[in-house]
Design brief:
Oligomer: single chain
Shape: globular
Radius of gyration: 19 Å
Number of strands: 7
Largest sheet: 7 strands, antiparallel
Number of helices: 13
Strand content: 15-25%
Helix content: 40-55%
Distance between the termini: 38 Å
Length: 280
């Protein structure tokens, strides 16, 4: 269990509804908390040192090796046998959703979606073959929108790590342009530069993008969202090693926090993942 709560008793009662096998809890005293200016930021930072769901599958040394060279490590993982083992009911209806993508994205747009999804998976998701379904999921919803109401953009595909949307492609209802956003780690994105200087530099390197604070902070308070206005802008982002490293760091930290819940697993579209691998 993680997060803030006014009533610990009520929070535990809610937690037990999902995790009925809980037999004990651990409480950590934080004597420096009263001195923290931003208690929520401190809480989120401390959580990252306590919760490591991914360690059950991938060792810390393997995670470090992956972050040093995501593409090489992911290619080794992808070349192995597909390890997806979700129950049949979890992916029921995914084939229909996959077929519907042809209508939503269009023939030309669809091939680009497949290729760019493959690029993202092989550069920004740790060992995607081994972690598919249980740590990250990709959905292709029949009906879903962003912005509004009424929704200004139609969701083409949405990749989530744990509970958080990290890579989303949308279709503008007015212009039919494919646009969207991806999540990155701000500390890696800005590096040693002050945020204002780094922001201006990134805007010059990637015209049309917008950078803002992420809506959710499962892995800490320094995650950012980069909105891209079209596919060309997304291509530039995924061709920039600095951007993909920031995105890879964000997804790795999210995986360390939690596995994907059942509500995400039932939206997974393995057919779309297969198409992404074929497009590489």
């Amino acid at each position: 269990m993680s997060g803030q709560s006014i009533s610990i008793g009520k929070r535990l009662a809610q937690h037990l509804l999902v995790h009925s096998d809980t037999v004990s809890i651990r409480v950590k005293v934080d004597p420096d908390a009263p001195l923290a200016g931003d208690t929520l930021r401190r809480l989120l930072r401390e959580e990252r040192t306590l919760i490591h769901a991914l360690n059950d599958l991938i060792t810390i040394s393997e995670q470090t090796e992956w972050l040093a060279d995501p593409f090489t490590e992911d290619r080794r993982d992808i070349d192995g046998d597909r390890q997806l083992n979700l129950c049949e009911s979890c992916v029921h209806g995914s084939a229909k959703n996959f077929e519907n993508l042809n209508t939503v994205a269009g023939k030309d747009g669809l091939s680009m979606v497949h290729r760019l999804l493959g690029e993202y998976l092989s550069n920004c998701i740790a060992y995607p073959n081994a972690t598919e379904g249980h740590y990250w999921n990709i959905s292709a919803p029949l009906k879903a929108g962003h912005g509004g109401p009424p929704a200004r953009r139609r969701t083409v595909c949405c990749l989530t790590v744990g509970m958080v949307e990290t890579f989303v492609i949308l279709k503008n209802r007015k212009t039919d342009a494919l646009e969207g956003f991806l999540q990155v780690n701000g500390s890696v994105l800005y590096g040693d530069l002050d945020p204002d200087t780094a922001y201006i530099r990134l805007k010059r390197q990637h015209p049309g993008i917008e950078i803002s604070a992420a809506n959710y902070h499962d892995s800490g308070p320094d995650n950012l969202t980069i909105d891209f206005p079209n596919i060309k802008a997304l291509v530039r982002l995924l061709n920039d090693p600095h951007i993909t490293l920031a995105a890879a760091t964000a997804t790795l930290l999210l995986m360390r926090v939690r596995k994907a819940p059942a509500t995400r697993q039932i939206t997974h579209c393995p057919e779309l993942v297969s198409a992404a691998w074929r497009a590489l």
